[in-house]
Automatic annotation (TrEMBL):
Protein's name in the database: DUF1538 domain-containing protein
Keywords annotated in UniProt: Membrane, Transmembrane, Transmembrane helix
Database matches in InterPro entries: UmpAB
Membrane-traversing stretches: 12-31, 43-61, 98-124, 136-158, 164-182, 194-214, 226-247
Keyword Endoplasmic reticulum: no
One Pfam family of this chain: DUF1538
Domain of life of the source: Bacteria
Length: 265
């Protein structure tokens, strides 16, 4: 009964959130473009699917993803667990003793990004538009690697307590430098790759991990240290995607050069 009441409450809240979007779309279609809405019945059914799907998704976040993210953070930072794998004295732990946290962050970042629906859609479109020059799996792996590195570095920042702006400013300096030298066709896609990672699958787990970690590591504040992992997850894919393009371009030029040298001989 409690589940049904929560679902109804979340559904009503979702309807309130979706109504402005529907009003803008229908308003422009009817009063600006001044044309009837094609396939109105199908559109309305689609909106119903969206509302119900979002309600279930939000309920799932509350019941599963957020709790499990915090639970994993609590378990991995538990002094009893860490003492099984470290010689450090409980209460005097070093950041190196949290290596299971960093490994978990890396793996969860990579796996959730690979499964991210928005990334899959962008990768397929990029492959189609580029005529196959941009591989679907190549892009997905490059983005996943960036997210994995970013989140693991972000968890290291939470454990050590270093200010977040050092990492973000340094990262964007690297992005600016890469932008100058990276193939021009990949730069906009690389920038968009940072955005598609902050979507339905990645954000809930990453946010829960960051908050859970900040709540369990001694001396950390959930408000100051718990947030920021999403920024890392958005930043580093830009670096890895442009790096992937630069390596691919360099490899292609090298192969072409070898072929010319072979032909001349």
């Amino acid at each position: 009964m409690e589940f049904i009441l929560q679902l109804i409450d979340i559904t009503l809240t979702t309807i309130k959130d979706v109504i402005p979007i529907a009003a803008i779309i229908f308003g422009f279609q009817l009063f600006v473009i001044r044309r009837p809405i094609p396939n109105l019945k199908r559109v309305l059914i689609g909106f119903a699917y969206v509302i119900f799907g979002l309600a279930l998704f939000l309920l799932g976040l509350d019941k599963a993803l957020f709790p499990i993210g915090r639970l994993m953070a609590e378990q991995l930072t538990n002094p009893d667990f860490i003492s099984q794998w470290s010689d450090s004295v409980p209460g005097q732990l070093h950041w190196k003793d949290y290596y299971w946290v960093f490994l978990f962050a890396f793996l969860i970042g990579a796996s959730t990004t690979i499964a991210e629906p928005s990334l899959i859609a962008v990768a397929i479109k990029a492959n189609e538009v580029s005529g196959g020059a941009i591989g679907v799996w190549g892009l997905r792996i490059a983005v996943a690697l960036g997210v994995a590195v970013g989140i693991s570095l972000g968890t290291w920042r939470i454990v050590t307590g270093y200010p977040i702006h050092w990492f973000i400013i340094s990262g964007y300096i690297v992005v600016v430098i890469q932008t100058i030298w990276a193939p021009k066709m990949i730069v906009p896609l690389a920038y968009d790759s940072g955005g598609v990672t902050t979507s339905t699958v990645t954000v809930p787990l990453v946010a829960a991990l960051g908050l859970g970690l900040a709540e369990t590591v001694p001396g950390r504040s959930a408000l100051i240290d718990g947030f920021g992992l999403i920024a890392f997850a958005s930043l580093f894919p830009m670096i890895t995607v442009m790096g992937y393009a630069q390596i691919t371009e360099w490899s292609a030029k090298r192969s072409s050069k070898k072929e010319r040298e072979t032909a001349e001989v």
